[in-house]
């Protein structure tokens, strides 16, 4: 199977997973919100929001294991692949322990006056915080196994485990409706239990399936040079990811301190909506990342940058086709989904989706930076810029600006980070900024204009409770047509046409 077909098949598998898990997750959120109520749901999102963000942590940190495994797969060096895995697992066991220790120390200070939590719910909040720390640990040590699966481009097992995880969380939501014990504690305990089950599904499968997934290296002398290289790579990846999590959770804490727990319900829902829709981007990147890394390992930087540009453009298109119409129909969609929509949720969802769309402009360049390997300066610069959102948000809230200005600053910071990524890759990898604009940014202008104008016209001239059933399909269809006509380069059209022909031929055979 050639690389293009493998990427296409893996992308299809992951998108099928996404369609299944997104629908179940949206329903689960509604059940949990109704079972816990706005206050407890806000408290849970405040305390456990870091776990929600661990999808970024897993993806980013897995890239270190996957990057080195992909390289040594190219050289057919099995002993080195085994060394990479065992040293990576040891490293992540240490990282997991350090992160949990850090969380517990931070919790001591947070629960002694820093957070605005009703006194009656303080004990329950502390309890679920400890269980969330355990969840964090298992989410960290599963990373090397995730990296093995990505390196082998085995997206089918990843998809199956994600579906199982989603179904287990649905089961938890249904249990909340019938238990008489403190629902917030039950939710925290059972959610932590799911992380252990998921770890076992990944670990047992990888250890049985792949020869390079071996625990032998844990019992013998460590490769100090390799461990140092893995530590540096994973450490700076962790720094960058923690900056992203720190920005997100820092905003949650600031909102809680100035306004209260109810605003965290709106912020939590907005982040969940963005995270679900962002699976479009994460899915495509997961399918393309091994090829991006292998291209750089083969000294084919031109192909590496071409794939990175394709990742940025297609990730944006795949998110925009859903996110932009949803922004115009956010109020009826949230009402249909949640019934009781917490205050500020509509504005938060719209603005965070816009910020997420901005991030997609250069999302592929994050993978390019990982492939090149010079990530220390990259993570310091980009991570520090993201954290600037916290002092800006503090000033906005301190000056009694409208609460949505916090999320506006969030979007502006994302735009600054995009510009910095372009200049950083130009400096470290020789990226042509002019070429990037002509192949990615310029190609996105006409499709954006078409979907925005079509959604605006429909919502301006049609007034009906189920109007979104018109807005979403019509604007999305026009967008898809415009993307094909104006958004794709000639080589991308050829690739898409060839895949469609092969898929059609296979369906006819069946």
Mean of pLDDT: 82
Note the beta-strand portion. under 5%
List the secondary-structure elements in sequence, H or E: HHHHHHHHHHHHHHHHHHHH
Radius of gyration: 23 Å
Number of continuous helical runs: 20
Shape estimate? globular
Counting structural domains, the number is: 1
User: Can you give the helix content as a percent range?
Assistant: over 70%
GO cellular component, one term: plasma membrane
Protein name: Na+-driven multidrug efflux pump
Transmembrane segments: 7-29, 41-59, 89-111, 131-149, 156-178, 184-205, 251-269, 314-338, 350-368, 380-397, 403-424, 445-462, 468-489
Membrane topology: Multi-pass membrane protein
Your description of this structure?
This protein has 510 residues and is mostly helical. Helices cover 85% and strands 0% of the residues. It has one domain (3-509). The protein has 20 helices and no strands. It starts with a helix and ends with a helix. The mean pLDDT is 82. Keywords: Cell membrane, Membrane, Transmembrane, Transmembrane helix.
Give the secondary structure arrangement, pairings included.
Blueprint: H1 3-52, H2 54-74, H3 78-114, H4 122-141, H5 143-151, H6 155-176, H7 183-209, H8 224-258, H9 261-277, H10 279-297, H11 301-328, H12 330-338, H13 345-360, H14 363-372, H15 376-387, H16 389-398, H17 405-429, H18 433-461, H19 468-487, H20 490-509
Helix pairs in contact: 1-4, 1-6, 1-8, 1-9, 1-10, 2-3, 2-5, 2-8, 2-10, 3-4, 3-5, 3-8, 4-7, 6-7, 8-9, 8-15, 8-16, 9-13, 10-11, 10-14, 11-13, 11-14, 11-18, 11-19, 13-17, 14-17, 15-17, 16-17, 18-19
